[in-house]
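Backbones bend. Shown next:

***
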Amino acid sequence: MKITSVSRRFAALACASISVVGVTAVNAPTAQAATSYVNDMCSYSNHFSCFRLFYNSNSGGAVFVSNSSLNDYSGYSPNGASVVRYMFGYYSTSDGKQMTPIVGGTSGEGVAVKNNAASVDNEDSAAYRVYFNSGYAGHSQYFSAHSGGNLDSTLHNQNASQRRL
């Protein structure tokens, strides 16, 4: 008789739990539409003057290219209805500079840029600083025009913004 009583209590508790979960799922907010970019302001046909962040050390793996200041590598919401995300992409380089987008095949492809970069190649005519925090704050590393290198131990996989100087 106790087994039946316990079984009924368990069944009632399970039904109540399912009802709560069902109500929560119905009232859950809808997700925002997202667009991902592997470049910002640099065209695919002219990567000669871009600042490049690489997923791996020594300019290896997937890359993100830009020629502007970026307040937050995680992206932004221009109108509250959509979200722009910055991601690493994969490019081939036939002459060492001209980059053509290719889908598939390298480490870091599709990974968010924020807190995942290891090295830089600055082909821009302007200098850049990479920052630890969003909003151009915290520890930073300077890269003069036409230079590059690995991010220092503080910024390696801890990058949040960049400023074109």
Observations:
- The helical segments are 2-26.
